[in-house]
Design brief:
It contains twelve helices and eleven strands. The chain is α/β, with parallel strands linked by helices. The protein has a domain at 6-92 and 173-250: P-loop containing nucleotide triphosphate hydrolases (Rossmann fold, 3-Layer(aba) Sandwich). The chain starts with 5 loop residues before the first strand and ends in a 13-residue tail after the last helix. The relative contact order is 0.13.
């Protein structure tokens, strides 16, 4: 597993959405077209067999990145490339969605839901082979063959997500794009699904692009983590580096929100402020209105991605070596 042979390459990708009012309203009210840049100049590579995670608050653009990679959205700029798949064929990509209740057809039996990609892609020759493959996939995700006869509403949330995983595996993908696959589940069920996904990765040689708003969820899944804020990657580092010594103030904010029952830090200062509207992002560094380290340069000039140790960071305070000074609240 090396970066020389990436299974996925995202190169300066951006995505704009037209959120303008209807044409007649704009004419009568003399308003211009309105665009929101959900993803802004995002670049990264995913090595084969690894788990690359993108984390950030709701609205930061991480789910848009997932939909761009799977082809559900077209890019406004930039390129998305895939490595060579098994047997020299194109890489197969599948997606696991956030809510299994809405992503599974309630009128279809589970067996038909899982069998559909097998039939459509002609992965098995006979009806008997398709049924055998469905039974095999149900067993792989911890369900029984008899579950194929049931409907999605007869299952719990965790079981429905297992069905979603089985459906994704039915097309024999090499890259799975997982868009918050555990956020709709109870904490205990989240752990079961994450353990299942880790086991499947080892057994099937899968590569994951994992989308989440919760760093604690991706902590034990990820090889590399990218932190997004308002459409841009603000920090990217190996998982162990990001958790041991985060650089960007926003990364530190996200880590501070993870509960710790052994060392609760109830005396830490509260971080105030809400993410600005993507329709009217602030000038300069978009995080500066919420950042205690912001100076005049931060409010006027957008920082570039720079290398700091094993991390890549978009922050003037890091570039100017201001973030780890004791007077700026450096981590001990």
């Amino acid at each position: 597993m090396t970066a020389v042979d990436p299974i996925l390459s995202v190169d300066h990708v951006s995505k704009k959405f037209d959120v303008s009012a209807p044409w007649l309203n704009r004419v009568l009210e003399r308003k211009p077209k309105l665009y929101v840049e959900a993803v802004n100049d995002v670049s990264f590579t995913v090595p084969r067999g690894s788990c690359f995670s993108i984390v950030g608050e709701s609205g930061c653009g991480k789910s848009t990145v997932a939909r761009l990679i799977t082809g559900l959205y077209a890019t406004s700029a930039g390129d998305i490339g895939f490595g060579e798949g098994r047997g020299g064929k194109p890489v197969r990509v599948q997606m696991i969605f956030q809510d299994p209740h809405s992503s599974l057809n309630p009128r279809w039996r589970v067996g038909d839901i899982i069998a559909e990609p097998i039939r459509e892609m002609h992965l098995r020759d006979t009806k008997e082979e398709v049924l055998e493959r469905v039974d095999e996939l149900l067993g792989t995700v911890g369900l029984a063959p008899d579950d194929a006869k049931k409907y999605p509403h007869e299952f719990s949330g965790g079981q429905r997500q297992r069905i979603s995983i089985a459906r994704a595996l039915a097309s024999e993908p090499e890259l799975l794009v997982c868009d918050e696959p555990t956020s709709a589940l109870d904490v205990s069920v989240q752990a079961q699904i994450l353990n299942l996904m880790r086991r499947l990765q080892q057994e099937l040689g899968l590569t994951y692009l994992f989308i989440s708003h919760d760093l604690s969820v991706v902590r034990h899944m990820s090889d590399m983590i990218a932190v997004m804020y308002l459409g841009k990657i603000v920090e990217m580092a190996p998982a162990e580096v990001l958790f041991r010594q985060p650089k960007h103030p926003y990364s530190r904010l996200l880590l501070a929100t993870i509960p710790d029952i052994h060392e609760p830090n109830r005396d830490r200062p509260l971080q105030t402020g809400e993410p600005p509207s993507p329709l009217a992002p602030p000038p300069g560094c978009t995080f500066h209105p919420r950042c205690g380290l912001a100076n005049e340069r931060c409010s006027n000039q957008m920082p570039n991605l720079t290398t700091s140790g094993r991390a890549t960071v978009r922050c003037h305070a890091v570039e100017e070596n201001r973030i780890d000074r004791p007077e700026n609240g450096a981590a001990v």
